[in-house]
Hints:
Layout: H1 2-12, H2 14-32, H3 49-67, H4 73-87, E1 98-102, E2 109-112, E3 116-120, H5 121-124, H6 130-145, H7 148-156, H8 158-169, H9 175-188, H10 192-208, H11 215-230, H12 244-255, E4 263-266, E5 272-278, E6 281-287, H13 296-313, E7 323-327, E8 331-336, E9 339-345, H14 355-380
Parallel strand pairs: 1-3
Antiparallel strand pairs: 2-3, 4-5, 5-6, 7-8, 8-9
Helix pairs in contact: 1-9, 2-9, 3-9, 4-6, 6-10, 6-11, 7-9, 10-12, 11-12, 11-13
The structure holds zinc ion.
Amino acid sequence: MQALEILLMENNFSVAFHVKQIFKLIVTLCCFLGVTFSSTVTEAGVISEKQEIEMGKAAAEQIEAHYGVLNDPMVTERVERIGQSLVAVCGRKNLTYTFKVLNTEDVNALACPGGHIYVFKGLLDFMPSDGELAAVLGHEIGHVVKRHTVHQIEKNMLTQMLAILAGVASGNGDVMAMGMVVSDALAAGYSRADESAADREGFDYCLKAGYSPYAMLITMHKLQEMAERYGNPGWGIFDSHPEPEKRIQNMHKLLSPLKITPNASKKADGGAFVRENFADGDWELVVRETAGGNDPYYRAELLAGALYQVKQRAKEKIDPTHFIVFEAPDKAKIYYEDMQLFVVYRQDAAGFGSIGACAGDYVEKLRIWAEKVNEKSKLQK
Length: 381
Ligand SMILES: [Zn+2]
């Protein structure tokens, strides 16, 4: 998720640079005046939660002033709803989290200490499913829960920060300077260990909140691809260490003990399988085509994750009649009740006569899968 976070800093933080000059001046002045800072060190660590919240708020104000916040209720409500569903299962619920969309076509996301989470408008186009967006937000919440930026500030900028906090303690805190310190820490990027930790946290929240278990994996593949195609912005969610391949490997390590089925795998010919093993053999569904901006493997992962969610929801039994198709002129969406499972495109329908006929064929296979799952769970009881 790092690539995104990095983007912001390089292109847009000339503002931060300017603030940095002011900040340096403040620190110099404080030193000159002989201000002492030891009184701000609290038992909870160098930076207390209250101070963390202050700093985060200051940084958030600067970021919002710089980019502007998108005012589109449909979009912002979606981001807020997904974000809060993750907060409900995270390990630091006492903070007040906010989720906002920054009005820029840049593709990135970032988190300020204290719980201000931002996605850039440009990112949303690439994250059409709630699960994918949840993976990004979960990763960012993970940074807040684990106080990564705060620790970074504590480690690298202790002296300067104490100067700022002295100001906060005395009620004379310089909001600009505080925000800049946070911006600087964000720009410096997270450590390898912090990024891996945020991935793990995000994965955990997504799973607990009921999103596709493959959401984080799908999002990582996508970010990797975007970084290759458009260039890696190098900060934020695109922060490039550990290497994307390594992050994807780590994600597979988290997934494998969970024995999530069905699973998706690549075919030698470039297509992909969704597959589940049953007593009477493998059930398989093949995705051959790249469509809707996603390659066959993405699409297979999306479907496999959605089918896992169907199993989770249908405690007793999956109703094979609850798979439904909604047809549009250029595609057909397959649902299980209100859960979207798969989108069939024109490319998929070659040899079927129509998109609807192709979707019908998929639904037939999904009904067979449902019956097999029901049979298996009956045997297990
Ligand atoms: Zn990150």
